[in-house]
Design goal:
The protein has a 4-stranded antiparallel beta sheet with strand order 3-1-7-8, with helices on one face. A 3-stranded antiparallel beta sheet has the order 4-5-6, with helices on one face. A two-stranded parallel sheet has the order 2-9. Helices cover about 20% and strands about 30% of the residues. It is α+β, with helices and mostly antiparallel strands. The chain has helices at about 10-20, 105-115, 130-135, and strands at about 25-30, 40, 50, 60-65, 65-75, 75-85, 90-95, 100, 125.
Length: about 160
Amino acid sequence: MMTMTSSRPYIARAFYDWILENDCTPHILVDATRNGVEVPGEFVKDGQIVLNISPTAVRALHMGNDVVTFDGRFGGEALTIVVPLDALMAIYARENGQGMVFEVESYSEADEQQEEFGEELPGLTAVPTASDSSSTSTEDDEPPKPPRNTGRPSLKVVK
C-alpha cells in the first residue's frame, strides 16, 4: 500500500482561508516543546503558545507542507517564527473558537518520520530579544526571569 503524505498542512491552509473569508482572526496553537520550533520563549505558557497569524499581524506568512514561517513583532522586537507542522496543535478563529484541533503525534512517531526522511531538525531554541543581547551575566548568575504578562500575547503590525 502506498504511504500518503500528511493531510495536516492542507487542512491548516484550508482553515486559514476559511477563517479569513468569514472576517475572523486566525490563531494557531503551537507545542513549543517540539524540535525545530522557534518562538519567543517569554510568551510560552505550559509548553504552548497561541499565535495570531492574520495578515494584519504578520508578514511573509508561508504555510508549507513541513513548516509554517512568518515574521512578527513581540514586545517591539521583529522576529522570524518557525513552526514545524508536527508542532501545530490547532488553528481556529479568535472570535468564535471555530477551527480544527489536530491529533498530537507522539514523540516516537515524529522521531520515526525524521529517521525515515533522513532529516535532522534542530532542537527547541529561544529567539533572542533585545534584553538578551544587552544583559551581561556570568556562569554563577541565575538566568533572568522573563517578564510577566497578564494579558494574552498577540501580534500586530507597527507602521
